[in-house]
Amino acid sequence: MTSESSAGSQSPLTRHPLKTAVLMGGIGAERDISIQSGGCVARALKEAGMDAVTCDIGPDNLDVLDDDSIDVFFLALHGMFGEDGRLQQILENKKLCYTGSGPKASRLAFDKMASKKAFAKAGVLTPAAVEFKGDTNLAKLEKFADKYVVKPITQGSSVGVTITDNPRTALEEARKCAEKFGDCMIEEYIAGREITVGVLLGRVLPIIEIKSSTSFYDYHAKYVDDRTQFLFDTIDDHSLTEKIEAAAIECFNALGLKHFARIDFIISPDEAIYALEANSIPGMTSHSLLPKAAAKADISMSDLCIKIIEAALKNKRTEYSSINTND
After folding, report:
1. pTM of this structure
2. DSSP string of 4-57?
3. Are residue 198 and residue 263 in the same domain, yes or no?
4. Residue 277 among the catalytic residues
């Protein structure tokens, strides 16, 4: 578990500040959260003495990417266009330096069904699921679960998620979900403790257990309800903690993620560890879980953002050196 601290004032970036553009907004259902994340990142960088600007962007508003004064782009977009690999591919094509995972890993993490297959291939448990199709029937559902989670395949923040113990209702909700969000999945509901694990530069941050005041940790519980509890040090079994941390790294590596991410799990009553999904650009607001976990590890918001930028710059230098060597 990471327990290091670093002073932002000691970073070369703060002694010789580069210009960072924090990209936020986008076109997805999580747009408002993205704008909050981007604002928090920019403030943290400015507090550390860095030159940072925010930019609300979308597929039809990418002028900032042609600004030669920008040294690095900090991606704070969530959901569609931000996490699905499209923006990352544009940045790659322009040979720009940016934070977070590349196009392929972003696409894989954004697709919940594809992620589950990658987790399973890596030997990590994940709830059984079927992709909803027009011919998905009751018999098929009844074979793998007695309670169901219906969710869009490519949305985050629990947008569009419903839970039911009735297979017929699950099908009805899946049809509604598909009509509104496109691709939809029906997943086996696993009862248990909900936890999330941040990964920073390939190392795990302290585990957070989430306790919602309602039966489901939905969008309202995540961003509105002050009664939701985010708890540290709730797992007393050191062996279980190690297994959770190992599973988080397995998931991170299985998807090919870089720099930072957050992996969500359910721990069943018999302590089986089920991976639910990965967030390749997790929230960076004052209420978000990755900054909370970093703070628990004595890493301030400013230090967290600087570490991510330093990793992006290092990767870019390595890439540039490799290209020159090959030439």
Report:
1. 0.89
2. ----GGGSHHHHSPPEEEEEEE-SSTTHHHHHHHHHHHHHHHHHTT-EEEEEEE
3. yes
4. yes
